[in-house]
Structures are given as C-alpha cells and as structure tokens.
Specification:
alpha/beta, 9 helices, globular
C-alpha cells in the first residue's frame, strides 16, 4: 500500500498495517534501523516504512543504535542527530570507521537545517540529510539514493595507485567519503586505524579547502593514495600559494592552544593549526612539500603478534 499525497514526519498518520507476511521463497524484506529518542517520531517513521515493505527496528540512543547496526546489518539507518547520549554525527562517524558497518547507508533526519550542520553530516559520511518536516517521497528518495551508494561501492575494487580531483566543498566531502571507504576496504587496516586515517584525511582536506583554496570552487583538491606492502600513503594537494609552518596565522600556540578560538568562531572559521595537530596524532608520519600546499600522510598496518618462541 502506498500513501497518497505528501505528509510530514512531524505529523500523524493512521495505521495502515504492516506489509503482509511474505510467502515461502519470497525475497527477504528490506530492513531499516531508526535511531530516534522520541518514541512518537520513531513509531511514525516505522509506520511510514512499513507501507513500502520495510521491516524496521528502533534504537532510542546512539550506543544502542551502534550495537544494533552491527548485529542486524540493516539496509539503511535513519539517524536523528539530537540523541541523549552520543550525538548523531558521532554515531555516523563510528559507523563509517568500523569495517562491519562502514558500507551501511545512512540518512540523517533532523531539525538542524543550517549549512554547517549539513556539511558536518556529509563530512562524517552521511549519504543524505533531510530536515524535518519532510515528505514521504523525499524520505524514500533519500533511502533509495543511500542504498544505491552501497551497491555502487560494493561493485568497485581499488588497488595500486588512485588519483582523484575534487572541486566544491560538498562534492569533496561526499566523494572523499566514498574514496576513503574503498581505500579502507582495499587494505588490512584495523578498525582503529580506519578511524584514524579517515579523521586525518578529512582534517587535511578541510584545510586544503579553507586555507589553501580559500573556498574557491574553481580550485581543485587533488588526492592520491598508494598502497604499499606495509602501509598506506595518501597525498593531499591544493592549488593555493602554500604557507610557512613557522608562521601560521591564528594557529594554536603551544603555550595557549585556545588562542583565537573565540574570534575565529565568530567569523565562522575553524581554528588554524588544529587540523595539523589532530593529524599528527592520527598518522605515523606527516610531511609537507617545500611550498606548503601538499601534505603526505603515512599510516602503517598493524603488525601481527610474533609467534611464540616455544620456550616455556
């Protein structure tokens, strides 16, 4: 049964009944995980999904959502951002940093409708971002796009050296997440290492957009990755004039790491220098070219424990 017209996820709907039981041999029902702390909202979304044959289950906080995503491997996660324990951005980031869930489609459903929150959603790996109230068609279009993303990712296989060029900020963040998913799947990186390299690359890509290219969409960010026998190498290059690392404007000072935070926050800018400090703790080696517009990140694979010597 398909609802007629368009209605809001913040409204109400008369129960039409769940999809009928499938006969033996029928294809498996699609599943959805709803991570939402308001029971009425969660049940409404569950009923909407049932109208198109989805079997949905609900988690009322972020940690439960993460556990259920690993356990049930849903076809899509519908993720609220304002949760009582872990915010939805962090839930999405952790889903993307875990091999068991890194390809799980994620649609963010939220009342937060400003550019910064949208950008943050794509930065941590969301496939779609819908603001409440939204229509039924909008919801299912977002779900279809998210599931198509996973199918596309599963068909791809990366090896050797890959070079990509990305332009606008939104495009970069979306495409970079796809790029990183394939990189992580093509290497023996551990879950912790996946999280670290994703964080490092995102920070440096954001620096390239903001500091290097000055948010100019006509300037590209070039990213190259190389798989080595003992680790992963990622090179990020912008088209800016570079910088002097000894004279970073508004950078974090060693004796006062919070210098300029208030001023830059009012200007809508990230704190200069913090991306570099974050990355240094996330990778095994980080180096810049002489001009300062290219950074190379090296992440070595976890080494297996040596076999026992046999001596008791």
């Amino acid at each position: 049964m398909t609802p007629t017209g368009d209605f809001s996820a913040s409204g109400t709907i008369e129960r039409q009944g769940r999809a009928p039981a499938q006969p033996a041999g029928a294809s498996k029902m699609a599943t959805a995980l709803i991570v939402e702390d308001h029971p009425e909202q969660a049940r409404l979304v569950e009923r909407i999904l049932a109208l198109r044959g989805y079997d949905a289950f609900i988690a009322e906080d972020g940690e439960t959502g993460l556990l259920m995503a690993r356990r049930h491997q849903p076809d899509v996660v519908l993720l609220d951002l304002m949760l009582p324990d872990v915010n939805g951005f962090d839930v999405c980031r952790r889903l993307r940093s875990d091999r068991a869930t890194m390809l799980t489609p994620v649609v963010m459903l939220t009342a937060l409708d400003d550019r910064q929150h949208r950008m943050h959603g794509f930065r941590v790996g969301a496939n779609a971002y819908l603001t409440k109230p939204y229509g039924v068609d909008e919801l299912f279009d977002a779900i279809a796009a998210a599931r198509a993303w996973r199918e596309s990712m599963q068909r791809q296989a990366l090896q050797g050296e890959i070079h990509v060029e990305l332009d606008s900020e939104v495009t970069l963040l979306k495409d970079l997440n796809d790029f990183l998913m394939n990189v992580c799947r093509a290497t023996p990186l551990s879950n912790d290492q996946v999280m670290q390299i994703r964080q490092a690359v995102m920070e440096m890509a954001q620096n390239a957009i903001e500091w290097g290219n000055q948010h100019r969409s006509d300037r590209l960010v070039e990213i190259t990755y190389r798989v080595h026998s003992d680790g992963l190498e990622i090179v990020i290059r912008d088209q800016g004039s570079g910088f002097d690392r000894d004279a970073l404007p508004h950078a974090a000072a060693p004796d006062d790491p919070f210098t300029h935070l208030d001023v830059r926050d009012k200007l809508g800018l990230r704190a200069g220098g913090f991306g570099m400090l974050i990355c240094q703790g996330m990778v095994d080696e980080m180096r810049y070219n002489r001009a300062g517009n290219e950074v190379t990140l090296l992440k070595r694979y976890a080494q297996p424990d040596p076999p026992p010597s046999g001596d008791e």
